[in-house]
Specification:
The complex is a heterodimer.
Chain A: H1 4-13, H2 20-37, H3 45-49, H4 73-78, E1 83-84, E2 87-88, H5 96-99
Antiparallel strand pairs in A: 1-2
Chain B: H1 10-18, H2 24-37, E1 44-47, H3 51-64, E2 74-78, H4 105-112, E3 116-121, H5 155-162, E4 168-173, H6 179-185, E5 188-191, E6 211-216, H7 219-229, E7 254-257, H8 268-283, E8 287-290, H9 299-314, H10 332-343, H11 346-358, H12 364-385, E9 391-395, H13 410-414, H14 421-426, E10 430-440, E11 443-452, H15 458-472
Parallel strand pairs in B: 2-3, 2-4, 7-8, 7-9
Antiparallel strand pairs in B: 1-3, 4-6, 5-6, 5-10, 9-11, 10-11
Classes of the chains: A mainly alpha, B alpha/beta.
């Protein structure tokens, strides 16, 4: 059961703020989508476990030849909303109260 | 002399440009004025200011005889594929004004082949949708009936071809986003094999599904574009290494039809059109065989579990700090939340929240793990079926183009993808080919015929696609 409090929790986890109207609408939508996708529960998981062939695997590469430092700094910083001395500037994450 | 651009394909333009029937500049000018004429359809979000400059360069190349296969060919590009120093917004307020710091690999390849970039095409926000109604910059109007949607999410790309405002287009397909709009606009659309075309420079939505592919007027043109953009790319770790490509045998002209999927919810006229196309293929020497895909009925629900999960993780990167929209707040948490809330539209927010739910402890196994198991079972179904047939046919979309504003609840919109999501779940290549028209309110609306092939058998899709094309003419 997805209630409005749960939607609020998901919104907080996703860093999205919702109006109470949107919270109500999303509660309805998400419940109806979940009840639609619910039908996959009728498939027995055992049937898949018998298929051993993994379709994808992780491909690793040597971290051998990094590009020279600073090569992409300017174009990347140009996209950032706030910069200072060649760094991206963000608000303080830990404030005084947290440290005490 | 520049003839009527409505009847020019990439293949013909190549011949005409090389034969000096007209210049790249004339071809570009013809497209620019056509774009201006068809502005009201809202297919383009931006027309580039250097098209004539590009055409001038292309003419020089053609004259020197050093031009690539696309030298002077005007191409449109979906707004989620990066072109260096150009804006790329993925149809979202979140990236309004963002400029790409580099070229996507596909863009680089088209550039090297001499292609001319006309502009960026409209799309559902972050490629989430089947109608372009989720674009932050307004819906695209279907070229065949302006009261209807062009399909989505690559609706602007499909409309740009159907309106004859580009000879080719690049789109992206996560659950049908190239093929469904191709079907609804009456053009050809290919979702290549997962890993056959680099996604470097594509704004990610569902990374286990996303593929870039071509939209064009004919199967031959789609093939030309695919051959330019395909290939291994060290910048995309999911692209298939050359040594893993198998030797492709000849197609044996056997087409499987999963009859059980062609029931409820499929428009009657669409089904009639589908049967007519099958009959024409029999005439051209194909064996048409009924097949079973026992788990295929779970494809759409499995897809709509996995996709929000991938969306919620992929779109976590949009935080208002490194790029994109930034909204001031009193602390960092408020800045994240305000930037994301102002930047993302309703469908994107819905999928992020749903994905967050699906991936949370306690639900993960019931939804995500289960959906991945179903995904494997579906792939297995297809592999088994492909032992007896070479291609699997269905309609591309269960209905012709629907009206703007007609589908108000998310599930009815999601059902538009019922035949297309499977190719994304399995990674297999699939092609939508125009197969005629159905009449709605005295308007002729196009219908698409959908073929799926085993991994890396795009050549079989092109061969059969040309036969479908010939049978419709």
């Amino acid at each position: 059961m997805v209630d409005e409090a749960h939607i609020e929790k998901l919104a907080a986890l996703s860093h999205i703020s919702l109006s109470s109207e949107e919270r109500k609408r999303l509660q309805k939508d998400i419940e109806s989508i979940l009840s639609y996708v619910e039908r996959i529960q009728s498939v027995s998981a055992g049937s898949a476990a018998r298929l051993t062939k993994a379709p994808v695997r992780t491909v690793m590469r040597e971290d051998g030849e990094p590009h020279s430092a600073g090569l992409y700094t300017t174009p990347l910083l140009e996209a950032a909303p706030r910069t200072k001395n060649n760094f991206i500037e963000v608000k303080k994450i830990i404030d005084q109260a947290d440290r005490e | 002399m520049m003839t009527d651009i409505e009847h020019i394909t990439i293949a013909e333009a190549r011949r005409d440009l090389d034969g000096r029937t007209y210049s790249a500049m004339e071809l570009a000018e013809a497209h620019l004025s056509r774009i201006e004429e068809k502005k009201g359809n809202n297919a383009y979000l931006e027309v580039f200011d250097d098209v004539r400059q590009q055409a001038k360069e292309a003419d020089k190349l053609v004259q020197s005889g050093r031009g690539g296969i696309l030298a002077g060919i005007p191409i449109s590009v979906k707004d989620n594929i990066l072109i260096r120093s150009r804006r790329a917004s993925a149809g979202s307020k979140m990236l309004e004004g963002y400029r790409a710091p580099y070229d996507a690999t596909v863009v680089l390849k088209i550039r090297e082949a001499g292609g001319i970039f006309l502009g960026r095409t409209n799309m559902d926000e972050f490629a989430m949708g089947s109608s372009t109604e989720n674009s932050a910059f307004g819906v695209v109007k279907n070229p065949h009936d302006e009261a209807r949607v062009p399909g989505g999410s690559s609706g602007g790309s499909a409309a740009s071809i159907a309106l004859h405002t580009a000879l080719g287009s690049l789109g992206s397909d996560t659950g049908g986003s190239i093929r469904q709009p191709a079907s609804l606009c009456g053009v050809v659309g290919l979702k290549p094999t997962y890993g056959s075309v680099s996604r470097y420079g594509l704004i990610a939505m569902g990374s286990s599904f996303d593929q870039i592919g071509p939209l064009a007027k004919t199967v031959e043109d789609a093939e030309i574009l695919f051959n330019v953009i395909k290939g291994n790319d060290p910048y995309d770790s999911t692209s298939i290494p050359v040594k893993l490509y198998p030797r492709i045998s000849e197609m044996r002209k056997r087409i499987g039809v999963p009859r059980a999927l062609l029931g409820e919810g499929i428009d009657e006229d669409v089904l009639k059109n589908f049967e007519k196309t099958l009959a024409a293929l029999r005439q051209s020497g194909y064996d048409v065989i009924d097949i079973e895909l026992p788990y295929a009925e779970y494809a759409l629900p499995a897809y709509y579990v996995i996709i929000p999960a991938e969306v919620s993780t992929n779109l976590a990167r949009f935080d208002g700090v490194r790029y994109g929209l930034h909204v001031e707040g009193k602390n960092i948490a408020e800045e994240y939340a305000e930037s994301r809330s102002k930047g993302f539209g309703p469908e994107v927010r819905r999928r992020i929240l749903l994905g967050t739910h699906i991936l949370s402890a306690g639900y993960y196994d019931a939804y995500y793990t289960k959906a991945q198991a179903v995904r494997q079972l579906i792939s297995h179904d297809y592999e088994e079926a492909f032992k007896a047939v070479d291609l699997i046919a269905t309609p591309t979309s269960p209905t012709p183009a629907f009206k703007i504003g007609e589908k108000t609840d998310p599930i009815s919109m999601y059902r538009s993808d019922i035949f297309t999501v499977t190719a994304n779940l399995t990674g297999m290549p699939a092609l939508s080919i125009p197969s005629g028209f159905v009449e709605r309110e005295k308007k002729e609306l196009p219908v698409g015929f959908h073929l799926t092939a085993p991994m890396l058998r795009e050549s079989w899709l092109f061969a059969a696609g040309k036969d479908v094309q010939a049978s419709v003419k």
